[in-house]
Write a structure and sequence with these properties.
The protein is an all-alpha fold. It has helices at about 1-15, 20-40, 45-70, 70-80, 80-85, 90-125, 130-155, 160-175, 190-200, 210-215, 225-250.
Length: about 250
């Protein structure tokens, strides 16, 4: 019950954040404006609209997770409202999990809303939706949950600006992790190669959640792959939340 109370309060607090509505406005404008790029490719407009719209759901969802998530714990400490919470019979890990669940609920509402707008727009343009489209939205949401866990971890140990920069860099690198091990020959056997290998295995490979191309082209995706990606994301998310709880446990507020 204590966790749910924190989650509900976090959700109510997040929906009052003006940054959320600014990002949603640009997300909607990008989705509706994707038709303009579709006109360039004759006969491929529906595919381009699907691809750009799903990319918008992912990118603006990540921006919401970054700008709202990295402020969650820091803002409570900065405004000293944390004292009214931790003086109650509540464990600190319950506070972290409650904050995370509140953000997860917010991202679920945002993701479903943007997916409904995208789906309605595609149908209005004469396109069709299939199971792969729904699975692509599901994996985008799972990716957002992972990014949110990282944002909350950094919210407990650093400032919102530095945390936002680190999370955004992790998101970019997470979609291009193969470049970390696909190095030129001059790097072979060097310390830089070993460091890159450590970073490769430490960072989650976010491209595992990207099936936008398959959704745009109507290519079926094996259910086993989707299940594996969900388990992969869940493991990383749990690890990050455990690290966030441990960091907040030792934090002097």
């Amino acid at each position: 019950m204590r966790i749910l109370a924190v989650a509900q309060n976090t959700f109510r607090e997040a929906v009052r954040d003006k940054v959320l509505y600014v990002l949603l406005f640009f997300a909607g404008a990008t989705i509706l404006g994707s038709k303009a790029l579709g006109w360039i490719s004759i006969g491929q407009d529906i595919k381009i609209v699907k691809d750009i719209s799903l990319a918008s759901v992912s990118i603006f969802g990540v921006l919401i997770a970054i700008f709202v998530g990295t402020n969650l714990v820091y803002k409570e400490i900065d405004k000293r409202t944390i004292y009214t919470i931790i003086c109650r019979p509540m464990r600190r890990w319950e506070f972290i999990v409650g904050k995370y669940l509140g953000m997860a609920l917010l991202l679920a509402v945002v993701t479903v809303s943007m997916a409904i707008i995208t789906g309605g727009y595609v149908l209005l343009l004469g396109g069709a939706l299939d199971t792969t489209f729904a699975l692509a939205v599901l994996l985008i949401y799972w990716e957002l949950l992972l990014v949110t866990a990282l944002a909350i971890l950094l919210s407990t140990v650093t400032s919102p600006i530095l945390g936002a920069i680190i999370v955004f860099c992790a998101y970019v690198v997470g979609h291009a992790t193969t470049v970390l091990i696909d190095l030129p020959e001059q790097f072979h056997g060097t310390v830089a190669e070993k460091i890159m290998a450590v970073v490769y295995y430490a960072l989650p490979n976010l491209s595992n959640f990207n099936i936008r191309a398959e959704a745009a082209n109507g290519v079926p995706v094996a259910p086993e792959y989707v299940l594996w990606a969900l388990v992969y994301g869940t493991i990383y998310t749990i690890m990050l939340l455990v690290m966030a709880s441990l960091a907040f446990e030792d934090k002097d507020v």
